[in-house]
Every structure is written in structure tokens, then in C-alpha cells.
Amino acid sequence: MKAKHFLNLTLILILVSTLAMVGCEGDQGPAGADGADGADGADGSDGTISEFTYVGDKGEACSHCHASTVQQVAMTGHGHAYESLDADSLENPYCVQCHTTGWDRPVSYGSDDWMTAPNADVNGFDDYFGVEGDEAAERRMALEGVQCESCHGPMGPDFNDHSPGLNFATMGTHDPENIVADDIVSDCYPCHSTQFEGPSGDFTGGYATSGHGSVSGGSVEDFNMEHYAHIESCAGCHTSEGFIAASDMAFADFDFGDTVNFIGCVTCHDPHMGDGGAGNPAQLRELGPVALSYTFPYEPDDAEAPTMTGFGTGQLCANCHKGRRDNANVASQIANGYAHFGPHHSAQADLFIGYGSYEIDGATYDRTHVHQSAENACVDCHMVRETELHGTTQDFAFHNFRPEIGTNCSGCHGDSFAEDDVETFQGTIEGLMDDLAVRFNYADYHDMEENWDSTAETVTVWEREAAYALFFIIGDGSLGVHNPDYATDLLNAAIAHYDANSEAF
Q1: Is 306:291 a contact under the CB 8 Å cutoff?
Q2: Tens digits of per-residue pLDDT, 124-133?
């Protein structure tokens, strides 16, 4: 009985205890009183990611948002710039300054003048060059190669204050006849000065005096006032921003702002991508096949339409240096006339491959020529040739784009081939052009170019058919050199067409 009584008592106590926990509050209600404030903790981070101005580390901080871009840059010549130096160059500050990140005191060739130059920061590679100790060695390693900060500016010490610089300009307002270094606003200039100035350093062989660099008299302000500068259909070939937007999907919807710039460095060269990754040689942007706009006698979008392809780095030039009149436009010009008669200027790719001009029905045309054997087409003739640079003879890309007759032509035409030979051929072509213009009652082809009105009621369809070849050759600008046989055939066929039709009246 006692055991049973004890068991009942235990059950009652458990039940009462459970009810107390569920339905009753403690002496101080649902929450106790606040305790006393504790001591202040250590200061939190102020956003500083580095004690250094230049962070380096191969763009590690950038890769959190731009991983694919950082990976591509690492496979370019910029990414491997430091390791490309030989042992002697690694000890030469003139070489090291352009193969590292954050070197901000220019070094003259064969001089140590940088050591006494003003120093804009204390964290670039120059501040650790030749310095002993583990810290200096670690910093040099972190700043090897041309990294993100070389072009976009230093990220430190406060990442939150960093606004990456984006520069699409190459030249500022300048006088093309009197270029000075201050006229050049490209971020590329400090290390690629010879591309701007030419190997002689007097600007005669460099971009600064090229047609691209001196358009609109060298004035960016005047360039922006040109009718084509802000028209979408024109900007893709006439402005740096337009070409980049058309050729780089990353910039397809980018807001470039109100000012557009000359065709320059970043127009043609992609700073982020080279042939070590998913890009092209020399970090060029667009090297794909280029179909001609006017594809006589083919129909638009025909799979057999004439296309410039397989000419290596020269393919980049063809994207813009081609006629920009399509089949409907040319047909309209022939039928009804047009105030700007012809293929629209810069039909170099068309003449080069032997297509693109209006062709007389029944005439024959030789489209192939020895110039088409050039591996890189435009580049082989207009840019690359050997020159003296820093005491050695080496290949150099002249960015004034003017061919040197002797060096570029002798391989096929022999060592005796000279500028006079080119001028003799061009004179022959000009003679044919004049012959055609005289038939139209003009003094010469210059006179016809300036004064012929293709829309006049007195101008017949057959006259426009004959005249098109003249304006096509004018639009190319080489006076037939880009394809002598096709140019000659075009003009002879046009003259014969004019004669055959004029005799009928």
C-alpha cells in the first residue's frame, strides 16, 4: 500500500510541475531586466583592403565580379609581360617599367633618371625595384606583368573609393603638322610610344600622323561636329566607340557618353583578350570573314556572295574598308542616279578581292592578282617591315599605315622595283580614268568627280553603268594598286560600253 501511495504522489508532483511550466510565469515576467553595457569592442573595418596603393595579385580583387575577363587578360602578352623578359632585361629599369604594374616614374633609354623623378605613390613596382628583403620580393611578385590597375588605375588603399578608369580616346585636340606628346591621351602611350611616334621618335612613322589620327584636322571637337559622328549607321566605322559597340558584345549596350573619338588603339585592339585565350593575334578585335555589301551579280545574302576571308590580321581592316552600298542601292543609282554616286568611299576590300563594282553585262574581269598571296593582306603591305629599333633590326608595325614601296614590294617585284614603277602603273590607270571622263565631256577624272551630276535628267542609264567603274576606283584610293588587273578590266569595259552606246545615237 505504501508503494502504491508513493507512486500516486510522484505522478501528481510531475503533473503539477508540468502545469507550472506551461501556464505560469516567473517572478520577473516574460523577460529579465537589461544587463549593464559591456566594454567597447575593437574598431571594425573601414573598407581598406590593402595598405598599398597598387594591390596587384593578378587582379584577384577584380575577379570576384570580372572572373572571365581577369582569366583572359592573364593569357595575353600583357599578362605574361614580366616573364617574357630575359635575365639582362630584368635588371634594366627601362624594360621593367613597361612589364610591371604601378611603375610611375618614366625611365629614359639607357638612363637612371627615374631615380630622381617625382614619385606619385610609394607602392608601385618602381618602389621595390632593387630593394632587399622579403617584403620587397613579395611586392615585386604581386606586381609582375601588366595587370588591371595598369590601365584602370590603382585599387588601393580603399577599394570602395576605386572607380575604374575607362578611356576610349587616343588623340586629343592637336595640330597634325606639329604633334607633341601632350596631344596623345591614350593610356597605351607610356609604353607604346613608338606606335604613336614611329621608331625614329619624330611621329613620321606613327599613328599620330595617320589618317585615323588626324581626321577633322586633329580636333576632337570638330570631329564630333561631323555629320557622321553620331549617326548609328556611320559610327560603327567612323568612331572608336561605334566600332567597339558593334564588335564587342560586352559593350553592345554600354553608355559611352556624348563625346566620340577617333579610330585608335582600343578601337582595333582588345586590351582584355589575345590569341593565348579566346582572342586574336595582336589582341585584334574582329578577324572574321567580311561579305561585300554590293555583290553583283549575286543576290543579297547569297551563300556565294563575294567575301574577303583568310587574310589573317588584314581581316580587321576589311570590316570598314569596303564599299557600303547594297544591291538595291546600286541598282537605284544605275536606274535613277544618286547624289553620292559610287560605292561610298573606302572600297579597298572590294577591289582587293576583285568584286564590288557594277560590272558591264557580257564583259570579262580578271579578279585574282598576286597581291592576294599576302598572308595578312593589308597589314603585310601597309604596316609591318624591318627597321632599326634600340640598336637592333626587327619587325615593326608602322601605325601610319603608309606602305614603303622598296621593302614591301621587292619580295615579289625584285630589288630594283621602286616608287617610280608604282607611279608608272598608277599613271596608266589615271590615263584610263581620264579617257573615260573625257567621253563625258570633262577635262579629266578629277573634274568629273567634282562636277558630274548623276541625277540629271540628261544622264542615261548606260552612262551611269559606264561611270560606276570610275567612281569605284576613286573610292578605293590606290589608283588600282590593290588589284591592277581588276581595275584595268573595269575601266576598259566601261570605256567600251560608253563607246558602243554613244555610237548608237
Answers
A1: yes
A2: 999 999 999 9
